[in-house]
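Researcher: Next entry in the queue.
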Amino acid sequence: MFQLILITILTGVVGLGLGGLIGAQLGEISKKARAIILSFSAGTMIALICFELLHEAMESGIHTWLVALIVLISAGIVVVLDYVVDSRAGHTDDFTACEDCDAKGMSPNKTNTKMRTKAVNKKRSEKLQLLVAGITTAAAIAIHNIPEGMSIGALYAQDGLSSALWVLLISIVIHNIPEGMTVAISLTTSGMPKWKAVGIAALSGVPTVIGAMIGYAMGSTGGSLGPAIALSFAAGTLTYVVFGEILPQSIKLYSSRKTAYAAIVGLAVGLVIIGSHMH
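Model: Structure for this entry, 279 residues:
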């Protein structure tokens, strides 16, 4: 149990804290680089979901339809959680491009006027908005880290420090770093001291440990049903994290085939690492 807590702290708290430190000291990396990093991370997670979590769950002997049902239920839970967090923060999941303005009944002149008005309003309270944005982002990351922690706990309960678990840990750290940078950059730009901004970024990783304890408890129950449910639940939550969070963020940051290439490379790397312990 101590080992699980330690690796989860290193993955969640230290990963986000490291990103916060980089963001506070060096500033923001390019959107292109962040998008490619996120896509690569998504690829490794897809390999983990398909070739480890779901494979192990179905090998346990429970019906495939039950695995699929648990995946849908767990993904649905995270969808609801995500919707609540975003609605409270005033975020939206719609990505509207400039070309869509006319389709929505807005003329170019009206669009330009609205854009200028928004720019003026933003300048009036820029620091306050950045502070709120940083805190809100940290809170959202904290809540979204719970299902990732559950996946860590479920895998650890099944196989301990396996190759598949290392794939998951590394992929989570990879996408935690730009998230920590986002939090720290917003907070330091608002005037907050760097050490406080880094601390808040790191603290947003604490729920990962809580999620790991829940996943471990589910995966440690007797018989084959408990671990199978835990693995299926972890697969569902990670599926939404990949397709509902990481990949949309990547596309929003940098819409290019290069992000697709990065995801494919990540999938291949994850598959090689997972396959290495099967032989």
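Model: Residues 126-159 form the longest helix (34 residues).
Researcher: Noted, moving on.
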